[in-house]
Design a protein that fits this description.
The complex is a heterotrimer. By secondary structure, chain B is mainly α. Chain B is built from eleven helices and two strands; from the N terminus they run H-H-H-H-E-E-H-H-H-H-H-H-H. The termini of chain B are far apart. The chains are: A mainly alpha, B mainly alpha, C alpha/beta.
Chain lengths: 332, 291, 391
Amino acid sequence: MGGLARPLTLLPVLLALAVLAPAVLNPYLRFVVTLFFIYAVVALGLNLLLGYAGQFAFANAAFFGWGAYATSLLQLRLDLPFVLALPLGALLTAGVGALVGLPALRLRGLYLAIVTLAFGEVTYWAMIHWAGLTGGASGLKAPAPDFTALGIPQGLGMYYLCLAMAVLLYAAAWGIVHSRVGRAFVAVRDFEVAAQALSVNLTRAKTAAFVLSAFYAGVAGGLHSATLRFVAPESFDLFQMVLQFAMVVVGGLGSVLGSALGAALVLGLRESLRAAVATQEILFGGLLIVCIVFLPRGLVSLLRWPGSPWIERLHWEPRRRGREVATWPLSP
Amino acid sequence: MFVNLLVSGLANGAVYALVALGLVVVYKATAVVNFAHGEGFMLAGLLAYSLYVLAGLPYGLALPAAVAGACLLGMLTERLAFRPLIRASVVSLVLATTGLSFVLKGIARQVWGGRGSDLAFPPVVAFQPLQIGELILTGQSLVVMGGAVATMLLFLLFFRYTLLGKMMRATAENQRAAALVGIRVERISTITWGVGVALGGVAAVLAAPLTLLYPDMGGPLLIRAFAAALLGGMGSLAGAVLGGLCLGVAENLAGGYVDTSVTEVAPFFLIILVLLLRPQGFLGRPEVVKV
Amino acid sequence: MTHRRWITVTAAAVACLLVGASAGPAMAADPGLTADTIKIGAFGPRTGRVYMYGELAMNGAELVYRQVNDRGGIHGRKIVYVREDDECKNEGGIAAAKKLIHQHQVFMIHGGGCSNPAIAAREEVESNRVPMFVLDAVADQIAQGARYIFHPGLTSGLESVAQVDFAKAMGAKKIAVVWQNDAWGKGRYEALMAKMKAEGITPVATEEMTVEQNDATAVVLRVQKSGADTVIQELYPKPTAVFVRDALKFGYKPLYISQTAAADLQDLQKQIGIPGALDRFYAISQVRVSLDDPDMEPWRQALQKHFPNDRLSIYTLFGIASAKVVVAALEHAGRDLTRERLVEATNRLCRVETGIYPGPVCFTPDDHHGLDQVAWIRLTGDGKVEFWRGK
């Protein structure tokens, strides 16, 4: 039963690190770490949907955008304060997630992928063309919570807010994953037909997965808008989707910690390549391939040894599903 | 206006159809959607540019050479990117091929970038618009449509009647059985990837004068080819062609009759509509999950 | 390892981090400045669809800086030029600006190729009081009302207004507008519509195209049906070429009024591939020389030498011209250089001749947009670029 006991010793240390870090980080690095907290949350949401529930959905970047626009517009148009706009925006996004989850009840695999991708593209198009609401292609100046009352600079305030939200949502996800809901997700992923026989309500499980991932993306999106103080459509395009997929796969599908590790690696890679000669595309793509080939279960798999401070169950087993695939050389 | 929108939509659709066909050929044989397929298209086009425009080779040499280059790229991708990941999950493969697409795009930018904006490929036939009633056709769009049809016919003949084509079909249907009758499954897999990317390469060279050439041209095309393939039913070659043509026509009709701003999003509305009403696409077979 | 070991290791790591990071470099009076170097930072799209506006323009700027360094620098200081990619995204723009300011500790910034990232980065630049010269982005809002940001080249607002004036001067009766609905195009479109409204002109058709579009049949037919005799285009080169080509297919030959993005007319002609396509095509040019002008030869050679992958293009010229303005400003500020002195000197900088921009660059404390003139170009029958001086 080593699952829960061990992480608790390492976590306070990591937390202390995170809380103290701004003392030594310059504003640029602090910004990057703030972004890491945000992406860790959205990657976790995607992992719940893709890694645990096995739903091959391309809609997460759109959910991220919905959250960002919803939070900003609730503040700008309805004069709501940020503390209300963020959760409301996330709830709205979760509602959208439920709608997007409906096709999931009829579609699987690549068909689900293309329909959710289409949803993402339509969202992107709407962000640009519904300019009266969204500000169109030039975007919106997004409001952010005012930290001057607390006497701390804006960047620092956002850092701690994002850290707090990330910790909260990670704890919640840990709970979900170890509950009936989490087990239902895995059942849907691995044994869809058998799961039904075991009275797992497929509809409820799939919808829950979509709603959760949308909610997480919605929160992350709202935080993103407040950190950048800018919301524009190009932040939520297909490249954003690729980035999120990369985080989840490289970190470890079906792993809570993996989501954070993947987010850290991908963002770290992006930042360190920012100054590289224009070959950074090649390096980024190459490193992605290397990670996938040599660590098929993700970074988290590096932590699997006896006595490791972190052990998670329900890990993603990479295997090809659907068609029967022979491997070569063929075994007799 | 309608007939012009329709016919130019078919010309665009023919390009989508060829690229989608290549995608489905690889998918049927190896159950992988190659997300670097668009970059294969792009590299074939740029290769043709280097041969035809820069090196001055005659078109009759440049086109086959570029297609051969695409074929080679496909085979290399199979060996280097797909083989090591043969047991990986769908998502891992998607990401690996996406990573490859970045690498290829970066290479293209290094080699062919730095010439200002998009590269021009001279039209193969002199521009003499042909007028039939209200319909107006240009030489180049006739080349594209004719070339696409010819390629698809050739491919069909190859697939149906040659030994290699039959081996590919056998492997696509049941690999174990194919191996049991003595087909070298690894070789066929490599060749299939080569053929798939080559089909995209043909489309690229035919369409190059119309699309212009630049390192980022693969992305939007891949999305449309992917959409076309799924529209037609992912396991169906004819479906891919049908899907591509429908997509091209839908774009134009939407742009002409609704609003030009809708052109880029029309394919996606179509996809959502069709797949919600018919989840297996036009010609796909409903998936039977064996318990 | 046991739990205890893990805690110890982690604590030790944290301690090292704290010690290592707190021992930072001692801050000079103004960062990025030493007795013999000035550090200039650049951000812009170095990859992606519009990397020409970033990487290629930066190449041009760097040529100027290398030349200046070869001649001994500015008041004895050599320029160190660092580049960061903003990926043409807001997030990238803010990250790149922060990295340049807080990590590289640049003295000033010469960057901005995409509108949105530059606008997003503006707050960071202004609040940290870093002087910035726009590289080749065109949005007005980057420098409008800013204290530390200067815009040497043309802006969308200026160009759109000029397009309407040009249309009127050419006697246009029915005007159609074809534009790209992205951050770049929207700025131009809105300025265009505002000016047209002010002049009491209503367009007979307003159609959109995307940068990737390969077929303009629907757009052309709709514009043609509206009876427009003039088409104002706010498009990048590819959609411009696609529209003109498809228009010719349908025998539609309006007057075209385009802008600086489509100003490489010889390239455009090649992309269209039909002789005589650009007979009635006029574009605003931000550069008053053509690429095969003998004056450009030394730059071509320098580019070949330092950036062998690159080829002389209008984007190189954009970078060269704006870098010349930067150099002029730094020289004007004198040897005793600080950021505030640079800003103050630039506010008084006028009559800077770049040899590339259509007119001299002039800044005032209230107007940080350096150019107020546009040049119109067209392609002659024998494929030469000609500056149109009026009927």
